[in-house]
User: What shape does this take?
Amino acid sequence: MNLSDRVNNIKASKTVQFTPLIQQLKQQGKVVIDFAVGEPEFETPADIINVTKKALDDQNTRYGPVSGLPELRSQLSARYSGYDGDNIIISNGSKQSLFSVFQVICNPGDEVIIPRPYWVSFVEQVKMAGGKPVFVNTINHQLDIGAIVRAITAKTKAIIINTPNNPTGAVYPEAGLEEISRLAIHNNVYVVSDEAYDFLIYDELRSVSFFNFKAARDRTIITNSFSKHYNMTGFRIGYVAAHKDIVQAMAKFQGHSSGNVCTFAQYGALAALSMGEEILIQRKAELEKKRDIAYGYAAELFDCIRPQGAFYLFPNITKHLRQGRTSEDFAADLLEKTGVAVVSGEAFGMPGHIRISYATSEDLLLRGFDKISEYLHSEETSV
Ligand SMILES: Cc1ncc(COP(=O)(O)O)c(C=O)c1O
Assistant: This one.
């Protein structure tokens, strides 16, 4: 096929790499323990489902405004003091929000600084916008501010920050974020702050939005999502909070690409904003408990940093890699031999690691880690 250079130059998402194989194994009747998924196992809360159903019954099924339902934009803006509905744009998940953001801020050759490991889509999205990803390493999964300073050039357009982080679960302290905000002002660059997991933060830590850094506000582009907070991954609703010029540019772009976000799903999002948070707080507590359990198991097997947010562990597995084997080989072999699916660090720009999602039942955590332990043992004895 005669495809564009644009598509030929991007890599397929590695987080979904094993999905067809997992399905095939399940069809063959094999038990698969899925630690690869990027969503909590919880159901969407009933209030959200009921309001969405009603929106369908009421025929809220037509085109809506490209930037989202005005009421939804306005209610979301209340989270950002001084902003109004014109500072918010709704997209089909924050994945599309981020895609549109890079489309509207990047010119060809503009550099975007991406701390590594990173969420799978940042790199390809920057490339699709004509930008150049510039990677900086982290130290024990935390930002290395010095490395970011050194990476800034006259071509730097933006710095991406993602806390709580996928794949590491790391939460960045406020002081470091504030330093980034000062860098953004000093160097006249944007900060794209992906806050998709802001609700899922543990150990009584306080979630710090980049919005807090008032002096950098016009340089700050926040992306957020209903997916993980409200267990609405399939609704596909994300949003951006930013300067009105950014929001207007995104609206122009979305007007020719996606058009509006599913109308009745946005009614579900409105219901999410007005429902009581008790059930979500309870679910968060369950995830925190699972974090403790999963981290306990993982720390016995691997070098693993204790995460404080999201629902992932990102252990270093290099000591378990036989000569010449990569973490990608490890993940493929583990799935084939034990039925446990994980994502290899290559997906996140950090080979030698695997990402384990612990947003599953306690029983599956126990069984899955037992299988991983048996696998490691059999590998050691077969050398
Ligand atoms: C860090 C991060 N950002 C953005 C997204 C996109 O989420 P959604 O498009 O469902 O809002 C994800 C999904 O896994 C993510 O992990």
Residues 5-43+278-382 form a domain with the Aspartate Aminotransferase, domain 1 fold (CATH 3.90.1150.10). Residues 278-301 form the longest helix (24 residues). Residues 38, 93-95, 119, 162, 166, 194, 196, 225, 227, 233, 238 surround pyridoxal-5'-phosphate (CB under 6 Å). The chain has a mean pLDDT of 95.
